[in-house]
Amino acid sequence: xxxxxxxxxxxxxxxxxxxxxxxxxxxxxxxxxxxxxxxxxxxxxxxxxxxxxxxxxxxxxxxxxxxxxxxxxxxxxxxxxxxxxxxxxxxxxxxxxxxxxxxxxxxxxxxxxxxxxxx
Length: 119
Known about the structure:
By secondary structure, the chain is of the alpha/beta class. Helix content is about 40%, strand content about 35%. The chain is globular and about 30 Å long.
């Protein structure tokens, strides 16, 4: 499940993942991003990952297709998690996608993560 977190910054897409991601989750976030892109040239992502219990195959492909379409529309991504494997994935993503800066933060530093995404 993905929950949208509302912030004061108009160029931030913030959400919380807790459980399995399905197609409805991807569509909800994609629609939210499309609306934000109407008033912002570049967006920044803030995501809290409590528990990730997988993603349905259909949701994965929908997310992949959306990501390709909007590859250059993002400039920063702050990932808040206490999962070590996700921290390693964030480091790899930061190197693989030079157009978006990716940093990982622990839950105790989630305020710093949001500040970094906004800066």
